[in-house]
Amino acid sequence: MSKLLRRCQLCVSVALLLVITACGGARSPAATAPTAAPTGAPAAATTAPTGAPAAATTAPTGAPAAATTAPTGAPAAATTAPTAIAGKGDAATGPGGSADTSGTYVSDLGFRPDANGFAFPNYGGDAGATNLTPNDVQRMFGDRACATIQDGKCLLTPPGEQWLQQLNGAMNGGHCEGMAVLSNLFYTGQVNPKNFGAASVPELQIAGNEPLQREIAYWFTTQATQPARAGIVAQTPSGVVNTLLTSFAAGPTGSDQYAVGIYKRDRTGGHAITPYAVEDRGKGVYWIMVYDNNYPGQARAVEVDTTSDTWNYVGSTNPAESEGRYEGDASTNTLELAPIGPRLGQQNCPFCDVPASARVGGALMRQANQPQFNEIWLEGDADLLITDTKGRSVGFKNGVFVNEITGSLSSSNKFGVNVWDTNAEPVYYIPTNIDFTISIDGSRLSKPANSTVTMIGPGYALEISDIILEPGQVDTLDVSPDGSLLSYRTESGETPFMLVAVETDAADYQFGVYGEKMAPGEALNLSLDTKKGTLSIDTIDNTEAGSYSLEVARYDDKGEQVFGATGVALDPNDVLYIDYLLWPGNGKPMSMDLDKGGDGTVDETLQVDDVTDSFTQ
User: Fold this and answer.
1) Helical ranges in 20-67 per DSSP H
2) Which residues are within 8 A (CB) of 128 and not within 5 positions of it... i.e. 6 or more apart?
3) C-alpha span between 37 and 508 (Å, rounded)
4) What is the mean pLDDT of residues 111-132?
5) Which end of the chain is more exposed for a tag (fewer CB within 10 A), N or C?
6) How confident is the model at residue 491, as a pLDDT?
7) HEC string for 114-170
8) Structural domain boundaries enclosing 106
9) Which residues, in sequence order, are bridge partners of residue 428?
10) How many distinct helices (H) and strands (E) make up the chain?
């Protein structure tokens, strides 16, 4: 049913978790995203290229202008004058150094950085750009991402709003993935630069160009969605070269187009670039020519030694900082091909719940073999360790990354700006049929830090914010895989804010509970029963009284209605039931049932006054 105008005011400050693939890096080891085996991805080649698939072409000095329709011919022959590769280094180190490309390529897409790349560099949150909007989320996932559509504007469900805030926060780190993908789409004629204000890509301006800003943000986001990530296949460096030789030979109209992801061996730096040609340097060495959006207009190259099956590239993920070296071998999975084709269709919505009426038959029915995940995000400098009921873990254990849970995955984002100063956690994907707890570990902290943990699943979102960890402190968060239970236990006396956002057929809700006063070692437990229409807060097993604030927001055909209360006192083992379905609306009291001692009997029914009409978190 249609749910009227609502505006989620979730403060989800996400400076970011390098969770998908950012033009920067994450600490995680070789990351994977929740995928099924791709059906049309090239097999991982492990042998060195055995021959050029086509006659070598020479590097044009003036590459063809950005296509407005799919190019139909191969790039014209051009001069053979050597072109210097930009960057620091020397002839011995090759790519990224001062050695000259021969200008002759064994396989050539025809793209050139100066003629087909953006004239502005990769940018982060300080540029003041507009990123993803609710209408862009609707474009990506379809109408079911919206609680309602009013005058052509999508108003997201509360879980959708939470997801949007997470991804936009991630873009504070940079937009390299979006720029790498969109530059290829412009060149291959699948997107027209005229729709964004110029006849060619180098003429496009980013300042004040909201449509272009949003388009870059859109393609950035596809690194986090399915089936976009399903095409990524672990390949050796030689395999990457072989795949690109075939792809470039097919030309701009070929079905397989790619962005390249590069990571440092320890995953502390990651970046997305656009490949366009392969040069044979002899003795098994190949250069993958790339457009690096941190360096507009410059020809750069990734060097692959197919004899040793190693690769290297010199290039900082931040144009303003000193360059760093990326490298790897056949075992590191640090050189990645990210297919563009799977991004072009509608993506699977990670936060959408399917209404009961649509669970059998129809376009909204989930595929029986489609895995569903809870996404776990961390903002802050702590470590996460997620442990299931069998004692298996994924995350950082004593500072070392582990993944012992079958079906769980992690993913690092490629961003590109300020990542050298960022110590970010990957995003974790835990199957929705697994119960788990989350440890928020401050063992490696050198000073107190503020952290936020967010979980987003099908139809719900949970968040714990204002977690103040001291060095060595470890707090525990228990959650149910369906989002109905949230329990937080602190080692200190901090006062976290707990948020639950849920999508239902009748209306959408978000609930916020703030621990005004909690003793060290005490727990705050929330349980949501959408069938009965109750939210319970309990202090079972606590030894001291606590005080809490409560907010409830409802979004339905009547618009946004918000209830707020402060100073809600609970003694140890009390259970408070909030009957939110019975609440008449703004300015009216909320009925709450109090079970003293938690024996299952309601001892008192309270009418608690409404003190606010806005959701403060």
Assistant:
1) none
2) none
3) 35
4) 94
5) N
6) 73
7) HHHCCCCCCCCHHHCCCCCCHHHHHHHHCHHHEEEEECCEEEECHHHHHHHHHHHHH
8) 84-129+175-343
9) 376, 410
10) 6, 34
Specify if 206 maps to a domain.
yes
Residue 283 within any structural domain of the chain: yes
155, 161, 166, 171: CA torsion to nearest 10 = 10
Nearest one of 305, 248, 317, 296 to 276, comparing CA atoms: 248
Instruction: Give Rg (Cα) of the chain.
Output: 26
**Domain assignment present for 317:** yes
**Dist. CA 15–CA 29, nearest whole Å:** 21
For CA atoms 31, 36, 40, 46, the dihedral sign is positive
Six token digits for residue 437 = 């707890």
560 phi and psi angles, rounded to 5 deg: -95, 130
The amino acid at residue 570 is L
- pLDDT confidence band for 375 (50 / 70 / 90): very high
Mean pLDDT of 442-467: 91
Q: How many domains does the chain have?
A: 1
Tell me whether residue 95 is in a domain.
yes
pLDDT above 80: residue 50: no
Half-sphere exposure of 379 (CA within 13 A, CB side): 22
In order, the DSSP letters of 489-556 are: E-SS----EEEEEEE-SS-EEEEEEEEEE--TT-EEEEEEETTTTEEEEE-TT--S-EEEEEEEEEEE
Residue linked to tokens 């503020």? 450
pLDDT score at 518: 77
Give this prediction's pTM: 0.80
Tens digits of residue pLDDT in 535-589: 999 988 888 888 889 999 998 877 889 999 999 999 999 999 999 988 999 999 9
Least confident of 261-275, 437-451, 473-487: 261-275
Cα angle 247-136-205, degrees, rounded to a multiple of 5: 70
Measure Cα distances from 53 to 57, 107, 145, 287 in Å: 11, 7, 44, 16
Question: Letter for the amino acid at 308?
Answer: S
> Distance between CA atoms of 1 and 468, rounded to whole angstroms?
41
pLDDT digits (tens, 9 = 90+) for 86-106: 433 333 344 553 347 778 899
- Tell me if 33 sits within 8 A of 409, measured CB to CB: yes
DSSP string, 367-428: PTT---EEEEEEESS-EEEEEETTS-EEEEETTEEEE-STT-EEE--B--SSGGG---PPEE
Length of the chain in terms of residues written: 617
